């Protein structure tokens, strides 16, 4: 029997309270009908005996204590799913906003998902090629991994997100047609949302992208649903349609701030910086939806992007994210200010799963060696720069001066990369070896002799030939 409950007991922000509601369930959807005939959607977010607190998605403007009829739907919030969601654009609550009509669903799925049995998880091993040298060589993204990008306000993380979505592909050529992107934007301005939509359309990848756009002026309640809708779509495409899905979510800080505001309106006791005490478990319920399931062809890989308030990596959002995820890609404001794109800060960035997804059979046999050597050499660059700031660059030893020169080349040619520059893993590794020729062979202590003979010496000859060619052209001119 369906019952309509007339009137509400209290109204508090986006929340309404009903008394004497038996048999309600947590997360149950409700329909709210106003006396002017309009309807709104909501869900039960808290229960105290027969009292229920309902979160209204469209806000409580126009709702009074006696002009509403509330009907419990008997089910949680569900997302309509079918293969035709590819190429479509939805709002944060999963409703189409591209003017192409509604989805005719093959099924509907609870947006909260279902936990993956740890026993059924498959260890991630195959890499995803993003076409960006710093990521592919030094902090490789592995299929099934969750690897966040830590950025700062005003930095080029939106451009980086678009470039990765446009260029990313899996290494298995046979499965390249089964690769797709789920893109979720939370709390973005209208011009940023238009930039995402236009960039995907102009680059021709929109047909393999599912977009969820929550704008800054949309209800915060919708913002708390956006990542769950995106991950539900990703799980359907991966585990039922057999696709390899890369989920890009930006900006997770906006999601967490919406969660803080919602928690405050419920009167919950705040934790660090006002965020709810359950922020860790809430983020974990999102991030842990990445992975590969035994017996399923597809995979879900997450690349969440978050902005660090005041560039503070100890802020609760990046701090807790770092505990849950398998590494991070950190952007540097100093590199960004000097015009380097993408401004990836190499030393604090890492991918904890890359060691098992690179090398012979995955990328190339020298990948691990060249990655370790570039990390070690660049850390010595930082030491040399710190010493130069004290005693002056002229007083440095000849080897330290070579490291200073290597650091400039590394940032200018390896880290710095054009927005439309899509490098293969072979091109990135060859470039790494060519840059290492700026250092004496005796300084390359992370690479064995066999690898040096096979890759370092040919790279040195290529660099010398290139320099001779440039000198000849200058002499002719």
TrEMBL record:
Pfam families named in the record: ATP-synt_ab (PF00006), ATP-synt_ab_N (PF02874), ATP-synt_VA_C (PF22919)
Domain ATPase F1/V1/A1 complex alpha/beta subunit nucleotide-binding: 131-351
Keywords: ATP synthesis, Hydrogen ion transport, Ion transport, Transport
Superkingdom of the source species: Bacteria
Domain ATP synthase A/B type C-terminal: 356-456
CDD domains named in the record: ATP-synt_V_A-type_beta_C, ATP-synt_V_A-type_beta_N, V_A-ATPase_B
GO MF term (any one): ATP binding
GO terms, biological process: proton motive force-driven plasma membrane ATP synthesis
Region (Disordered): 458-477
Domain ATPase F1/V1/A1 complex alpha/beta subunit N-terminal: 9-65
Family annotation (NCBIfam families): PRK04196.1
Function statement: Produces ATP from ADP in the presence of a proton gradient across the membrane. The V-type beta chain is a regulatory subunit.
Family in the record: Belongs to the ATPase alpha/beta chains family.
Protein name in the entry: V-type ATP synthase beta chain
Lineage: Bacteria, Bacillati, Bacillota, Clostridia, Eubacteriales
Gene (name only): atpB
